[in-house]
Amino acid sequence: MKKIVAVICGLVVCLSMASAKKKSSGKFVLGLDDSFPPLGFRDKNNEIVGYDIDLAREVASRLGLELVCQPIDWSTKEMELNTGKIDCIWNGLTLTEERKRAMACSEPYLANAQVVVVRNNGEIKSLSDLKGKKIGVQAGSSAQEAIDGAPDFKKSLKEIVEFKENVTALNDLEFGNLDGVVMDLVVAGYSITQGKKPLVILDETLAPEEYGIAFSRKNKSLRDKVQKTLLEMQADGTVAKISTKWFGSDISTIGK
Predict the structure, then answer these.
(1) 104 within 8 A of 158, measured Cβ to Cβ
(2) pLDDT (tens digit, 9 = 90+) per residue, 103-124?
(3) What CATH number corresponds to the domain at position 124?
(4) What is this structure's pTM?
(5) Cα(170)–Cα(200) distance, rounded to whole angstroms?
(6) How many secondary structure helices (H) and strands (E) does the chain include?
(7) Is the separation of the CB atoms in 62 and 232 below 8 Å?
């Protein structure tokens, strides 16, 4: 009996140590779509970089944590968060009332809008010109939600093709397989400029929006720590420096 008790006690100690080790792992696991420039993407060396990554790395450093960038399937991002595989979703996540109810979201840190990208041949100049046309959209994205939120526009389209990421959709548009791509303004502008693509963004927007960071509702304390750190970074000029690096000016909305 004493041996059995000793074994049980040993197991309890081991489990406790494992649990403590997990809690003190010192890692901040960020879930992202790693093909979403300029917020989070892979550079020529296959390293994950971007505006959101720079912000998160500085936040993690100030909190004494190691940033771990974990690529995920964007269409299952909420599940990845709720199962504890990631600590947050930080990669151009549009704040919606539904997401605010389902997750513990930060305050907005960047303004954005859902827009339509078309070829620059001048054939399509407005949303109405897309009647009977085929457009692409990233599955599970706020762009898809923006289309659903504009029923007249959606009904006018011939076909909506879903893609895993925007990069492939833009390539198909450039090759003539699509007539337009609905996506985030911030990402569209960067992709067109950096890739020198023969594409333009229509002036009409489908929906204005704001980006935020999502955490599990069970982990509001981490959300609050990150939010507090971002405000400190905004106050000391760190956010402005990072924003200028990626966008040429400070376009952050933190604390504004």
Answers:
(1) no
(2) 999 999 999 999 999 999 999 9
(3) 3.40.190.10
(4) 0.79
(5) 11
(6) 10, 12
(7) yes
